[in-house]
Each structure stands twice: as C-alpha cells, then as structure tokens.
Amino acid sequence: MLANWPNAIALIDADYFFAHCELARHPEHRGKPLMVLGRLGSCILAKSPEAKALGIGTAMPFWEAKKLCPKGIYLQGDFRYYTLMSRRLMAVLRQWSPVVEECSIDEAFMDMGGLCDLYRLPFEAIAQKIQSEVKTALGITVSFGISVNKTLAKIACEIRKPNGVMAVPGIGIESFLATLPVGEIPGIGFNREALLQKWGIKTGLQFAHMPHDRVNRLLGQTGLQLWREMRGEVAFPLQSAAVPPKSIGRTSSFDKPTSNLDWVRGLAVYHLERALESLCDHELFAGELTLYLRDKEFKTYGFGHRFERPTSDFNEWIVAFQKLFLQIPSNHVWRSAGAFLTRLTPANGQQLDLFSDPQKSVQSDRLNQAKQKLNERFGRTTVRSGATLYFNSKCVSKNRMQMPIQ
Known about the structure:
Layout: E1 9-14, H1 17-25, E2 34-37, E3 44-47, H2 49-53, H3 62-68, E4 73-76, H4 79-96, E5 100-104, E6 107-111, H5 115-119, H6 123-138, E7 142-147, H7 150-160, E8 165-167, H8 173-178, H9 190-198, H10 204-208, H11 212-230, E9 248-258, H12 261-281, E10 284-295, E11 300-311, H13 314-325, E12 334-346, H14 358-378, H15 392-395
Parallel strand pairs: 2-4, 7-8
Antiparallel strand pairs: 1-6, 1-7, 2-3, 5-6, 9-12, 10-11, 10-12
C-alpha cells in the first residue's frame, strides 16, 4: 500500500489569470463581463467568469464575442504587466518553498514535502494561507491541487477550480481515480481515450490497473509515464532549475487575410523582434531562422536560413529575413506570419570567427543592449524596426502599464 505522502507536490494555477490581472488594476470592472484581446485584437485571449457564463470562449473571434456580449469590457492584452504579475506570484510561492517549477506564466509546481512539520499545519491549511497571501498581494485568486506526483496534482487542481484546494494522499488515489473519466488525465487526448475505450478502459482506476505490456503496446513510452503516475509513482520529477528552450517562435494572425506584403513583412519582423527579445532573456544565441507563413487556405510555408555561427545580432537577422521574403510566392493571400529561431546555444563563451571585425561586433552588441534596456523601461515597442510601422495602429499593442509593480 502506498504511503499517504511519500512526496507532496502541489500545482498552483492562477484563475482566469489575464482577466483577473486586469481586474486587479481596474476594480471598477468587477462583476462585469471582461475580455482580454490578443496582440492583434482579433480574438479573445482570456475572459472573466461573467463573460464565460455568457458563452464567451478562449480564441473566439472578436466580432463573434462582440455579438454575444455587446456591452462587455474589451481590453487589449498588456503582456508586460502580466509577466510582472507572474513574477510576483512566483516570488510569493518561493517564500513558502524554495523548490518551485514554473511551467507557464500562470502555473507552477511546488514541492511541499516537509512543510507540514515546518508550519505545523496540514497541506490544505497551508494552501489556504498561500491563497490568502496571493489575494492580498496581487488581487487575484489561485487554485491548489496537492498529491504525490505532478499529474495527480494537476487533475486535483482542475477539479477544484476556481479558488479551490484539493489534496489526494496516496491512500486516497484509488477512490479518486474510480470515478475519473480516463480522458480527464492530462496527456490522454481524444484519440488515446477512444483507443483505451475499445479495450474497456473508461476510468482512471481501470487505466492504473492495466498490465504494463498492454499500456506499452497501446500508448508507448508516454503512456507508460502517465500509467506510472496514476499508480502513485513519480515519472515526471520536479525541475526547479530553469530549462532553456530548444526553440523560440512567435506567430499571430491578421484580423482578415491580406495580400499586402508590407503588412505581412511588418508582422513577421515584429515577431522576429519578440523572438529575439526572448532569446536575449534566456541568454542564448540562435543559428537558424525560419520565416513562417500561413495562407487563407491554411497551408503553411517555412523559409529557412542557417547562419555560419550562432548569433543574437538583430542586424544579421533582419538582413537574412529580408532575403527570405524574396522567396514568398506571389499572388497569395496570407492569414498569419511569424518567426522561429532554432539551433540555440548558450551566449556565454561565444567566440568570433577568424574574419570577424571585433569593433563592429562590440558596437552591434552595445546597440542591441541599449535597445533592449529602452524597451524594458518604456515598453516593448519603444524602439523597433521601421517595417512594423505599417501595422502600428492594429498589430502592435500599446504599453498600458498603469500600476507600479515592486
């Protein structure tokens, strides 16, 4: 029999994060249907509970949401503000436990092992204290799921959203899984659920009781990892150290498909700059660039360029980007555009090649650093490529930071 708490892992998930961030600085909108728009203002990125009750869904087109809720509050997303709020949330969590794995802007796993003895409280009471602290410090709510591994903690968290707490100890796993539809297990999508049901597997408990060889044959290595977690084992250990990305990509769609190549180029360059900002934040260089395009028929195109040596120099990237645009098919109507950076390597220890101009490289680095500092201080789009001016009014969100973040 599995011990009650061989491990204690919590998933903390912020409820309606972007919407609640907006309500934290706009309390006059509380109780009203509020929607946060994506970077281009073409679709719903997040919504308040009141908007959800009216049938507003994530990724719903703006025009459709406006039709359902004409008197709703529609705000352009302010991602710099959300990032700062996320940092404050993670800082609160790390005051309770030093082992925190950030898995998205509004989600984190936390190792709660030993906290009961330290604070002389059960896990549920500790979670409620953290919820109260987050509410006081940030003005948002979070949900807690606590169990012996990540997957069970995530399921528990989803069941108790919003602003809830649920703990599943080892001795309670079987009763917890007995009524859980197998499709509710993260990683068991529609196709895997349909396959399992062909074998009579409809609940999480039935999945946990499957023979090892059958799980391996039907679902492979990923299925075996989920199977182990349903049995109370740890197949996905916590990773508190930041894991560098293997690739960085940024894309988005136009409000309406367009054949205007200036607009397409502007949007792609805008996303290239965003990707390079992320590259610098992770202290990485990239050796390969891909211009990504999708036409109105949803056919995708990728045009790639490989550099002789990895770099983060915007001047080198933009020259390569312009060359890639010469390969774009003519007479196409484009739905979306973006940029992907691959072949990532650490920036430290990068050496110039034999024929590089050291003075030019130093000047370029200083220019890029100055640009990044200005954008960090005054907003992401303060200094940007002139190509992005073609869609300034619609495609570049304005800096709406109004609430100071300590």
